Amino acid sequence: MIVQTGSVTMSRQRAGLWLGLILCGLMLAVAQWTLAQATVERQVLVLSVDGAIGPATVDYLVRGIADAEETGAALVVVRLDTPGGLMSSTRSLIKTMLASEVPVVTWVTPAGARAASAGTYILYGSHIAAMSPATHLGSATPVQMGGSLTASQTTENFGNESSAPTPRAEDSTAMERKVLEDAVSYIRSLAERHGRNADWAEQAVREAVNLSAAEALELGVIDVVADDLDDLLSRIHGRDVVMASGPVTLDTAGLTAVRQQPDWRTRLLTVITDPNIAYFLMIIGFYGIIFELANPGAMYPGVIGAICLVLALFAFQVLSVNYAGLALILLGLAFIVGEAFMPSFGMLGVGGIVAFVLGSVILMDGSHRQISLPAIGGTATVAGGFMLWTVTRFMGLRRKPPATGTERMVGEPCQALSDFQPDGNVYRGYVQLAGERWHAISHEAILAEQQLRVQSRRGLTVTVRPDPTGAGRKEVL
């Protein structure tokens, strides 16, 4: 009995020991998770934008804001330096900012940076608008290709400061006024939401004016001017911002900066969504597919062409593309290729080049970065040279004598292999023609090894005659 009681006591002690270890482990895990959460909540995520606002930039910023919401970051700071960008991309980014659960600070930095055109709208749409000394903003007038709008071009765009200002009201078209008033209403609504200077915002859209950082702070266009990130965080501490869920007071004391630079995905999107790159990808893809169809089994043209064409179509999906221009480009390329297969004395080729150039010019409807005219001219020149080479090649081939068939054999030299035997009114025998033994007939007597010329062919029999220039007996190889 005593031994059994001791065993039970030891078992209970071991169970208690294991239970205590498990509880301690759970407590340590909970403490570590709580500490980690506290650390994440005290972070500020810093994103950087340097260049035009486009689909790749928006993808990078939207994913960054989503990461901040998921990890519980206290703040998102966007370091901004941009000459402008696409209106569609800018509106998409501002929608994400306004709906964000994490306050977004747009900070124009470093010294010498700018928030022109689309950048001004992004500043007005941010919960906090900040600038570094020696920076500027403004020139928020929406522009189009060539600095004007037509009835067929309804996708507005933000150009840079070099863009021509909007024409006066009396000189403007109805479409220009419609787009301008829409932009004014949009930026005023952003200014009123965050309590900023709406009158200057309207002036920036209508007259394309600019402000330095100090002037913007004085006029109430921005909230703070900060030299560095620590200065920025200290100046916005305790400020009230308007979030989607209501007013929030910022607590930026002791935040740890976590910088998230653009990854390979963003860099790849930036490259392929460049209008010039997308343009060349489409041309390479088109010709790759054509060459693969013309030479089945070549593999390389088909694989490269398919990849380039898919990348080009993706780029055109996210860019502001005029589909009439895209159709003209494809039609022009088809005509140029058709000239190579169905020579039309230049009609298809000339029409293809005209359609190709016109489509290239109007392809990027409302895009911030147009396809460069030298690229269009160079591509059209190469296509025209290819067409000219094809036409001259076919003309030269028509003038050359046939290389195969019955026509090619007429006039060819041959040699009698034996004396021809009379057969009625003709003589029959065998000749060596192009290294082969042929049955031959002649209207004259033929001797062995006599040099002959082919007059005609019928089936497997050739009609020959003596060669006046080769009367001697010599072997024809």
The low-pLDDT segments are: 145-156, 160-171, 471-477
- Judging by the overall fold, what is the CATH architecture of the largest domain? Alpha-Beta Complex
Number of strands: 20
Rg computed from alpha carbons, rounded to a whole number of angstroms = 40 Å
Instruction: Indicate the structural class.
Output: alpha/beta
In CATH's first tier, which class of the largest domain applies? Alpha Beta
Describe this structure in words.
The protein is α/β, with parallel strands linked by helices and 477 residues long. It has 4 domains: 1-40; 42-262, Alpha-Beta Complex (2-enoyl-CoA Hydratase, Chain A, domain 1); 273-399, no CATH class; 409-466, Nucleic acid-binding proteins (OB fold (Dihydrolipoamide Acetyltransferase, E2P), Beta Barrel). It has helices at residues 2-41, 55-71, 87-99, 118-125, 174-194, 198-207, 213-218, 229-236, 264-272, 275-294, 300-318, 323-341, 347-362, 373-399, 405-409; strands spanning 43-50, 75-81, 85-86, 104-108, 114-116, 128-131, 136-138, 142-143, 157-158, 210-212, 224-225, 240-243, 246-249, 256-260, 413-416, 421-423, 426-433, 436-442, 451-458, 461-466. The longest helix is centred in the N-terminal third of the chain and has 40 residues, at 2-41. The protein starts with a helix and ends in an 11-residue tail after the last strand.
